[in-house]
Amino acid sequence: VLGRILAGEMRTGVSEGLVLEAIARVAGVPVETARRAALYLGDLAEVAGLAARGGAEALTRTSARVGVPLLPMLAELADDFDEVLAAHGGRTALEFKYDGARIQLHRDGDRIGIWSRRLSDVTRSLPDVVELARRALGPGPTILDGEVVALDRAGRPLPFQELMRRFRRVHGVEALVRELPLALHLFDCLMADGRSLIERPSEERWAALVAVTGGRHLAERTICVDGAAAFAFLQRALAAGHEGVVAKDLRSGYEPGGRGKRWFKLKATETVDCVIVAADRGSGRRTGWLSNYHLAVRDGEGFADVGKTFKGLTDGQFVAMTERLRALATTDDGYSVRVRPEVVVEVAYNEIQRSPTYPSGFALRFARITRIRDDKGPGQATTLAELAGLYERQFRTKGRAAGPLV
After folding, report:
1. Catalytic residue among 97, 248, 267, 376
2. Which of 365, 291, 366 is nearest to 335 (CA)?
3. What are the CA-CA distances from residue 153 to residues 92, 103, 157, 182, 217 (Å)?
4. Which segments of 297-383 does DSSP mark as H helices, in order?
5. For 92-105, what is each residue's pLDDT tens digit?
6. Would residue 72 be called left, alpha or beta, if left means φ above 0 and alpha means ψ between -120 and 50 degrees?
7. Stretch 64-93: mean pLDDT
8. What is the distance between the alpha carbons of residues 33 and 254, in angstroms, rounded to a whole number?
C-alpha cells in the first residue's frame, strides 16, 4: 500500500484509516502518531514519504506549519456549569459563542491565508480580513483560530445565512465587502513567531494570542471559578444576540479535529447537525417545492434517519433548497426524492425520543431547521452515538434515569 501511495497509484475512495495503518506499520509507530502527522502535513503521500525516509523519528517530529490548515478543535455539549467546573479542575475560561463561521488565519511575512472549518481556502472571499490581519499581526509565522460574524449597518450580528454569502463569493467581492462587513473574533493561537503552541496549555496560548494581536479582535472572555459568575456571563452572551458560551480547560492543549471535555459549549437551544437524505414534495402553499426534509445523523459509513421537518426556512430558502436537492437526486417515486447526502443543516428540537419508526431508534420531537450549514460537510454531522449521548443527557438534566439503549 505504501509503495502505491508513493507512486501516486492509490485509487480515490480508499479508506484514509487503512492508509494510515499501512504507514504506521512501515514506520513502526502507533496509528495515532501517523494520524497526527497527517493532520499537521495535510497530505497522506507526504506522510508516507516521510515514513519511508525517516521512520518513526521523522513522523514524531512533525508539527504545524504555515499554509497547511489544521482541523479545528471542537466542543462537547455540557449540561450545566457544575459539569464544566468539575471537568476543568474548578477553573475555566468562558468565551462568547458567536453565530458566525470558523476560520483559521495563517501569516508568514506577506503571505496571508484563510481557511474555513471544512479546510477550504477562502482567502479571496475575505479580502477585508486579510487586510485586517496585515495591519494587526506581526510578520512572523503565525496561525490563529477564530470566528467571523457578518454585521448590519448598526453593527449588530446578521443571521448565519447572510454570512455564508461572503464565503461563497469569488467574483464581485469588493461590492459584497461593503454590503456585508465582518467582525473578527480570535480565540486561539496555534503558532506564534514560528513556534508551535499546539501542545501548550490553553492559558499560555491565550497569552500568546494577546501578544501577537496587541489585544485586538479577541473573543469576549472571562475566567470563572463558580457557577453564578459563569451563568451571568452566559446571560451577557445571550443578551448580546450570541448563541451561548464555550468553556475551555486552561490546562489543555489544542487537539486538531478533536471533540471532548477540554472544551464545552452551553447554548440556550439544543441543536444537532443533520444531513438531508430525502425530501417530500410540498402541498398547498408549498406546492412545487421539495419542502419536507428527511433528516439523518452519521452512522458508521452511512446515515440513519431521525425525523422530518418542513419548519424553519423562508420561502426564498425553500426555492433555493429545492433546486439544490434536485441536482443531488438519486431516485424519485413521484412523492419523495432521495438525494446524495451532502447538505448539512442545524436542527433545533424540543426533545429526543425513542422511536420504532426509524432504524436509528430515535426521533427529534418538533424539529426545525435553524441554519443551513454550508460550512460543514456530511462527515462533520452529528453521529448516532452522539445523539444517543444527548438522549441520555436529557434524563440527567431532568433528574431521572433513562433505560438502557436497545
Report:
1. 97
2. 291
3. 35, 23, 10, 11, 19
4. 315-327
5. 999 999 989 999 99
6. beta
7. 92
8. 16
pLDDT digits (tens, 9 = 90+) for 6-51: 444 444 444 677 888 888 887 788 888 888 888 888 778 888 888 8
Q: Which three cell numbers, joined as nine digits, stand for 41?
A: 502535513
Question: Where do the structural domains in the chain lie, given as residue ranges?
Answer: 2-60, 74-267, 271-398
SS3 call for 9? coil
Contact criterion met (CB below 8 Å) for 107 and 137 = yes
Question: Can you tell me which residue has the cell 402553499?
Answer: 285
CA 40 to chain centre: 18
Output phi, psi for 331, to 5 deg: -145, 155
Query: What is the grid cell recorded at 229?
Result: 459568575
Name the residue type at position 71: L
Measured distance CA(227)–CA(238) in Å, rounded? 16
How far out from the chain centre does Cα 248 lie?
16
Q: What string of H, E and C letters represents the secondary structure of 122-162?
A: CCCCCHHHHHHHHHHCCCCCEEEEEEEEEECCCCCECCHHH
Does residue 97 carry a catalytic annotation? yes
Q: Is the pTM of this model over 0.85?
A: no
CATH class of 271-398: mainly beta
Q: Is 98 exposed, middle or buried (0-12, 13-18, 19+ CB in 10 A)?
A: buried
**Cα–Cα distances in Å, from 398 out to 10, 81, 95?**
51, 15, 26
Give which of 14, 23, 31, 71 is closest to 50, Cα–Cα: 23
* Cα–Cα distance for residue pair 287/281, rounded to 1 Å: 7
CA triplet 360, 364, 369: central angle to 5 degrees? Answer: 120
Q: Which amino acid is at 216?
A: R
Q: What is the DSSP letter of 3?
A: H
The CATH superfamily of 74-267 is DNA ligase/mRNA capping enzyme (3.30.470.30)
Q: Which of 226, 246, 225, 219 is nearest to 234 (CA)?
A: 246
Residues 6+ apart with CB under 8 A from 278: 293, 294, 336, 337, 338, 339
27 contacts 59 by C-beta, under 8 angstroms: yes
Of how many residues is the chain composed? 406
